[in-house]
């Protein structure tokens, strides 16, 4: 099911909701999907987003939105000299947004004359925007763009010892220390400060929307809503899996044209999301593994965090002659693909994925088996959700992006074959996909959650 993004007509008894996404496609995409879902419920939505974006993909997505849906939100200049030169540009932009909350009230006064029902802010900007919204007398909700498991970790983080060998959250979730987002191992890291401050601020929000569904993370959602994770946490609304909001492309990309020629459920799709790079040495092992597996594959290569920095041709990364050698068996591309279209293509059987949360929910909705290879951040926590639900396999010894060592080709090839051949996984993903479809059906959990959210903003 997909919803279309058209601004609702507005009017006196139509609630007006402002959405404030943070940097990166992994944050912007769920906000755009949320905008579509709210618009479909006749809520008047405006997206506040900085139009000078970090990546070209964000720019393209923003420029595809109807112009009256979008307002260019100002970001206060960030003194880059305060951060290590190697800092992730997406992370710096998130921090820039978090430090721009004082601009909210003047911006709203200049932009809106009628009352605002609610602001929904990205988790990474929660600690500064929740108080700023309160000062402007606007109820503030948070969209949590990762799993409910990560939400439990984030909201409980002010009360946890993150150095324990296993982080036990209310007895319902146990996260081994090696699965934590790596910066959390350093209590002085800015990510840790942000994470804990945002987690603490959640208690002051009017509600938390999370892009998951009850059958995927039942215990954690129940524990969050029954005060077991943190007493006094506001209601958590499971509104996922947020369905795609974008129009289907009118022209077929080379990736889709290639998939059209492949047999039913025969292809492994390989992609590590919008901002996860891979070293050339690891790419060569991955290339060798895919070739050795004998499976058909569609591989999206990414050598830099920010797409605007990508230079050089594919051969430079995967080895001269590779692309030609695998022709017919595998297609290697270096540009953005419409992942939701790829995952719902009849030829796709499996997804070698970094387990960014959007990718996980998209695979769940499409009924595609996942071979989980988390590379950074929240991805090991998400990979555990994948493995627990039988949505795929997770070889948990495979290294992080920044760790020394490589996952070798033979190992990759073995796991790719296992995922493609495992008949039990096929059964479980079909069940998960049916549950995902039921969650977003008219009487499903997502619509019920939206109805509760609406009740709250109309009070
Ligand atoms: N995506 C896409 N095409 C690409 C790469 C990514 O459509 O070539 C989309 C993907 O479908 C997902 C989002 O970008 O919706 C990436 O979010 P995710 O949480 O999976 O990972 P992140 O990029 O934040 O690490
Ligand atoms: N996150 C969080 N609290 C924060 C910042 C992030 O819980 O203060 C979550 C958020 O949902 C994010 C995840 O941690 O998806 C990992 O963050 P990271 O910056 O590594 O990845 P990103 O989301 O930026 O792709």
TrEMBL record:
Key word Endoplasmic reticulum present:
no
Q: Which SUPFAM superfamilies match?
A: UDP-Glycosyltransferase/glycogen phosphorylase
What PROSITE patterns does the annotation carry? UDPGT (PS00375)
GO MF terms, alphabetically ordered = UDP-glucosyltransferase activity
Q: Give the E.C. number(s).
A: 2.4.1.-
Q: Does the entry feature the keyword Transferase, yes or no?
A: yes
What general EC class does the enzyme of this chain belong to?
A: transferase
Name the InterPro entries on file.
Answer: UDP-glycosyltransf_plant, UDP_glucos_trans, UDP_glycos_trans_CS
Identify the keywords attached in UniProt to this record, alphabetized: Glycosyltransferase, Transferase
* Highest taxon in the source lineage: Eukaryota
Family to which the UniProt record says this protein belongs: Belongs to the UDP-glycosyltransferase family.
Q: What is the recorded name of this protein?
A: Glycosyltransferase
What organism is the protein native to? Platanthera zijinensis
């Amino acid at each position: 099911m997909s919803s279309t993004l058209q601004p609702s007509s507005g009017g006196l008894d139509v609630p007006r909701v402002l959405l404030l996404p943070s940097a990166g496609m992994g944050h912007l995409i769920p906000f755009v999907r949320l905008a579509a879902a709210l618009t479909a419920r006749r809520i008047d939505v405006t997206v506040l987003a900085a139009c000078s974006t970090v990546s070209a993909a964000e720019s393209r997505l923003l420029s595809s939105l109807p112009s009256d849906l979008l307002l260019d939100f100002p970001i206060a200049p960030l003194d880059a000299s305060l951060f290590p030169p190697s800092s992730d540009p997406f992370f710096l932009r998130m921090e820039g947004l978090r430090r721009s909350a004082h601009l909210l009230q003047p911006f709203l006064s200049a932009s809106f004359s009628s009352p605002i029902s609610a602001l929904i802010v990205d988790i990474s900007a929660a600690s500064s925007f929740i108080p700023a919204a309160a000062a402007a007398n606007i109820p503030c909700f948070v969209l949590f763009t990762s799993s409910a498991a990560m939400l439990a970790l984030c909201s409980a983080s002010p009360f946890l010892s993150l150095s324990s060998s296993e982080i036990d959250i209310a007895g319902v979730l146990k996260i081994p220390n090696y699965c934590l987002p790596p910066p959390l191992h350093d209590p002085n890291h800015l990510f840790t400060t942000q994470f804990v401050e945002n987690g603490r601020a959640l208690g002051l929000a009017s509600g938390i929307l999370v892009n998951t569904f009850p059958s995927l993370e039942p215990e954690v959602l129940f524990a969050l809503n029954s005060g077991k994770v943190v007493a006094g946490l506001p209601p958590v609304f499971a509104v996922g899996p947020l369905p795609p909001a974008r129009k289907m492309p009118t022209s077929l990309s080379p990736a889709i044209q290639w998939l059209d020629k492949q047999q039913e459920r025969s292809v492994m799709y390989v992609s590590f999301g919008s901002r996860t790079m891979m070293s050339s040495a690891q790419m060569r092992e991955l290339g060798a593994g895919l070739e050795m597996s004998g499976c058909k594959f569609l591989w999206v290569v990414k050598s830099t965090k920010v797409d605007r920095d990508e230079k050089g041709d594919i051969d430079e990364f995967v080895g001269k002659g590779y692309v030609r050698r695998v022709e017919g068996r595998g297609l290697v591309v270096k540009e953005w693909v419409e992942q939701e279209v790829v995952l719902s293509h009849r030829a796709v059987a499996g997804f070698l994925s970094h387990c960014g949360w959007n990718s996980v929910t998209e695979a769940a909705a499409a009924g595609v088996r996942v071979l989980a290879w988390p590379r950074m951040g929240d991805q090991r926590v998400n990979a555990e959700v994948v493995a627990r639900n039988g949505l795929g396999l997770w070889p948990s010894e495979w290294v992080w992006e920044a760790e020394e060592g490589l996952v070798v080709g033979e190992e990759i090839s073995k796991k790719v074959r296992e995922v493609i051949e495992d008949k039990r996984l096929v059964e479980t993903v079909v069940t998960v996909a049916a549950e995902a479809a039921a969650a977003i059906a008219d009487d499903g959990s997502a619509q019920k959650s939206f109805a509760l959210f609406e009740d709250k903003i109309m009070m």
